[in-house]
Amino acid sequence: MRKLVLTCLAAGLYVSSGFAQTLFTYGNNPVSKDEFVRVYTKNTISKKPDMSEKALREYLELYSLFRMKVREAELQHLDTMENIQYELNNYRKQLAKNYLTDEEVSNQLIREAYNRLKEEVRVAHILVSVPMMAGGKDTVEAYNRIDSIYKSITNKKGDFSALAAKFSDDKGSKEAGGEVGYITALQTIFPFENVAYNTPVGKVSTPFRTQFGYHIIKVLDRRPAKGELKVAQILISSPKSKGEEGIAEARKRVEQMQAELKSGASFESLVKKYSDDKFTKDQEGVLPVFGVGRMTPAFENAAYSLKKPGDVSAPIQTDFGFHVIKLIDKYPLKPYDTLFPQLKRKVENDSRAGMARESFFNKIKQQNGFKENAANYDALLKRIMAIPDTGKNANSFEASDFKSMNAPLFSLGKKEYKQSDFMQFAEKITRGRLNGARSAVVRDVYNMYVQNVVNDFEEHRLVEEHPDFKNLMTEYRDGIMLFELMDRNVWGKASKDTVGLKAFYETRKDKYKWEPGFNGAVYRFKDEAAMKEGMKLISAKNVKEEDVIKKMNSDANPDAVTVQRGRFEFSKFTDASRTEIAKAKPTTEAHKNTDGTYTVVRVNEVFNEPTTKSLEDAKGYVVAEYQDYLEQEWNKQMRQKYPVKMNEDVLNAMIQK
Predict the structure, then answer these.
(1) b/e code 364-381 from CB counts within 10 Å (16+ = b)
(2) Could you report the per-residue pLDDT of 241-276, keeping only the tens digit for each?
(3) Domain containing 544: what range?
(4) Tell me: the pLDDT tens digits for 365-392?
(5) CATH code (residue 258)
(6) Distance from CA of residue 85 to its chain's centroid?
(7) pTM to 2 decimals?
(8) What is the DSSP letter of 433?
(9) Which helix H or strand E contains 644, and what residues bound it?
(10) Edge-to-edge, what's the strand order for the sheet holding 371-372?
(11) Is residue 215 within 8 Å of 125, Cβ to Cβ?
């Protein structure tokens, strides 16, 4: 709701700076023709804005009122409120991400990803796990293990698949000799993809590191991309818990199903009869569209071997059971221009986006005289390395312990960033703990600090360098300020001003009417059996609605009955039930609904004439109308406080007949 209101109130509405023709003033505040045209054009649904006099004057009426309210919010300093500042800062950081990147490098990465999508690479790998922030000892041990395995392969002392089965920490592939299957771009982590695409067929990569540990990749094959597939399946499961007996039982069902398929039974009917895949059974077995690397190799190979839509595979076995696959359609790789928006989103959310950001930050550093002081860094590191790694407070520190270290670590622009500044940042990031390889941890946190400083430095210059960024920030600022002001003057006031609301209700209460009806309860029973049970309970003395619900609904049958209580109008019921209610019968007969459910009404009191609703009964309507009233009164006050003076000559020049 909040986002909707902000969009409606403030999309595209902002004050521009610089000299321009004044279109109108509100009070002493001018609004330029350029600003209005920009806003008007942006908020026009059609490609060509309606520049008729009628359309322009209507929008001017709305826009001038908007500007009055924003000005009022500024005078009340709403933009200094903590919650608004918090929202603005979050929005600024989110919006800035689109600007703090090297667009040229980003486009190169997008093109590279697309080119890689044209080819699929079959790979096997060996993984030696080690966390990124592991201590020096663990990291060295992991590297020595992978290096030993690599040398065994390159010296031809060991077979890759045998070594993978014996030493790899990747449980998902080690039983298959490390084979992962075919992969393509944007499917694995970027470092893994990069090495896979840069290693020739039959060759083994040198060890490389990712967040999972150290890897060696062997490229087994390359082939042109086969695109994506849409298939349906019949799954006959054979759980491992049932062993060979379960597999034999599943095979019998497969043979029976195949016999029916050969006899002319449709694939779709056999899905309903045999498939154990509860997620696709009611969708004729259809699976989501997939490409290489998404399914188990056996399933993938069988699916991609099907030639044309309608072809059905022989049964294939996986860890899930037996699958029979029907090809529905094939989808080749789409053109670059078509995929560009999707690829851009994926690249921006992928680790490779860091390359574009790093390139951008390097340019900012070069342009603004970034200079590091290695000696001061080494002095700080020496002090950090002296922090005890044993005892009660092992590996712990407080930034205040370093407050006297004020030598500069680096400078950017005209500002120096001191050792003590960095330690305050480090305390927040590490929570005052230096676990792992300490010098490596400090270097990583230092690099984060530099990036954070450069990011903030450029972020605050975006307003000067990018008018569109400035405009978007102003739009959002105006929107959240206006939301706060509207809540104070209209929405919140209408709900909280109980005296004003009651007085407003009294002036027009005759318009809030109950139509002829009754006070009581309406029961809705799931089916005939539930209705019969419910009627017995309802007819008993001193039985309350909650007693019926408690008695009939259970975990196994949670919706046997639902009950609505309160005031009801005859017009909501059938003629038959209305007649019975009008006779003031305590309980109506059960009425069968078109969906097979049954309705029963229990009457406490009948009202054959319209009656006025109480404030409580009509509150939703009253509050909504009171809000409209308050807004109209507030609008009048704004127009009186900020009289609008239109420059008719400028307006007439804009009008297109």
Answers:
(1) bbeebebeeeeebbeebb
(2) 677 888 888 999 999 999 999 999 999 999 999 999
(3) 513-612
(4) 998 999 999 999 999 999 989 888 777 7
(5) 3.10.50.40
(6) 23
(7) 0.58
(8) B
(9) strand 644-646
(10) 371-372, 408-412, 415-418
(11) yes
